[in-house]
Amino acid sequence: MEYLDREMTWGIEWSDSSRRIDSAGRVSIPSKLKNALKIECGDTVDFGLLSWEDEPNFIVVSKNTGVDVRYRIAAEALKELGLDVPERLVKIIENRD
Question: Cα 23 to the chain's mean position, in Å?
């Protein structure tokens, strides 16, 4: 595993495989990544862009759990800063609301 910063909770593990985009704009997700995210046939995934210095550089893929991924990122950021995660946010993430 190759991490940009081992102190980060949100490390980046690079895949050792590349894929070509077909003429319809499709790309297959490597099995290693599908297994890590527990993505199975028929699951829904969300896509986003991760920008660095105002330029979109990475495509982010997240298994759709019915909870906006930004809520989970916000909760993790608060934890990283040593702050409490508001109960309302916890309820949203746990689909209790």
Answer: 26
Q: What share of the chain is helix, strand, coil (3-state, %, to 5)?
A: 25, 20, 55
Domain that holds residue 52: 34-64
Scanning 1-97, the segments in alpha helix (DSSP H) are 31-37, 69-80, 87-93
Q: How many domains does the chain have?
A: 2
Whole-prediction pTM: 0.53
Q: 19-56, pLDDT tens digit by residue?
A: 899 999 999 988 888 888 889 999 988 888 877 777 77
Kindly state whether residues 60 and 71 are assigned to the same domain: no
